[in-house]
Amino acid sequence: AVETELYTFEKSEEIFAAAKELMPGGVSSPVRAFKSVGGNPVVFDRVKGAYAWDVDDNKYIDYVGTWGPAIIGHADDEVLDAVKATMDKGCSFGAPCLLENQLAQKVIDAVPSVEMVRFTNSGTEACMGMIRLVRAYTQREKVIKFEGCYHGHADSFLVQAGSGVATLGLPDSPGVPASATAATLCAQYNDIESVKKIFEDNKDEIAAVILEPVVGNSGFIKPDKEFLEALREITTENGSVLVFDEVMTGFRVAYGGAQEYFGVTPDVTTMGKVIGGGLPVGAYGGKREIMELVAPAGPMYQAGTLSGNPLAMTAGIKTMERLEQPGVHEELERKSKMLIDGIVAAAEKHGHEISADCAGGMFGWYFTKGPVKNFQDATKADPEKFGKWHRMMLERGVYLAPSMYEAGFMSMAHTEEDIKRTIEIADEVLSQL
Ligand code: PMP
Q1: C-alpha of residue 126 to centroid of ligand 1, in Å
Q2: What is the DSSP-derived secondary structure letter of residue 276?
Q3: 80-323: what fold?
Q4: Which segments of the chain belong to CATH 3.90.1150.10?
Q5: CA 247 to ligand 1 center in whole angstroms
Q6: How many CA within 13 A on the CB side of residue 351?
């Protein structure tokens, strides 16, 4: 039995009420507002290792990890010390710096498809650069994306986009001109026939197929390896670019990302989250021949005042140094598996339908029988049950993503004790759900 007293959230409530008067919805990014799970969010005070503390001093085992970056654990001492040392030299240069070479080299060494890389400040920016690049390279406009995949909030990607867009029930967003999405064609994940059909209907017009090579923005969905292989084939046959958006999966499911995990190499890759070690970094990279189109090497324009920022490069380099050690991702997967196995056993014991899976340090479960192969399958999960589950776990000290359309993140800092404790708490919650 779990003997914790349920948490209360007085200070969080007070601060969030004030925040709502100051910022739309009280937040700087929609899913943080807990809209789809009900109740108000907790306001964080500090993070360390596998834990987060809120302003009421409640301590959580954290499986959000600032939405992915905290893969070696929050506020790692080595990262903090390195960032402080860099900070003594200044916060931003707006000029070339050696740290960019060092992180670029690490990315190129790690990610099979990447021969050259351009740094940005976010995953969204990386995806904006990427789509312009694939269009410039192929001199075609149409792209294929998948229902439930999120590629940041650029206009052309806000079509059936998963994540916060799915959570809020907005298949699209007002303010996005129809012309901006007209060339974005949507296929079904894990369904190669739906992709073939679009290629047939748009002969020699498809610039790229863009996907999350493991989906984290419709909840957690693994691709069939054959699906990825078939995408590799069909894009090559049609002179189209294959893009893996590894903003979430990069350096997380394996050091070389999902492309290493599944052994399928795209032409272009987008990255973010982990490569910034908690500071703002995104990146896109790929074959030299394609990347040399990017300005100033080539004519495709993309830029950034703060891009390649020394603090962010430092946090990224230090994080990567830890991740490149042997066995890290096997250990992450072992812990992810231990967690989902425990949750599934507890759910089944108490008569709940559940379907769960993991890859490296990324995992997820749905309260539905499964298997969940695409976004449509994911929508069969019970949102009301998820909302209650989320609140009850929160009140007992487990911080889970506040939407059933988000994946969970394991870190190197989570111990077996943390995971066992999480399963015990889940068992109690599931017995009452
Ligand atoms: N692509 C994917 C696959 C993502 O998961 C995200 C963010 N969750 C993005 C792009 C956008 O990144 P950012 O939030 O850093 O703009």
Answers
A1: 9
A2: G
A3: Aspartate Aminotransferase; domain 2 (3.40.640)
A4: 10-75+327-432
A5: 6
A6: 3
Instruction: Give the 3-state secondary structure of residue 286.
Output: strand
Is pLDDT of 167 > 60? no
CB 74 within 8 A of CB 65: yes
Residue type, 84: K
Which among 69, 82, 72, 80 has a CA at the least distance from the CA of 50?
Answer: 72
Residues having CB closer than 6 A to ligand 1 are 67, 122-124, 127, 150-152, 212, 216-217, 245, 247-248, 272, 282
Q: Return residue ranges of the chain for CATH 3.40.640.10.
A: 80-323
Please, what's the largest Cα pairwise distance for the chain?
A: 64
Architecture of domain 10-75+327-432: Alpha-Beta Complex (3.90)
pLDDT at 76 over 80: yes
ipTM of this complex: 0.99
Model pTM score: 0.97
pLDDT band at 1 (very low <50, low <70, confident <90, very high): low
Examine the pLDDT at 4 and tell me if it is beyond 70: no
At 163, is the pLDDT very low, low, confident or very high (cuts 50, 70, 90)?
A: low
Give CA–CA dist 380/175, Å, rounded: 29
Q: Residue 2: what pLDDT?
A: 57
**CA separation for the pair 382, 371 (Å, rounded):** 15
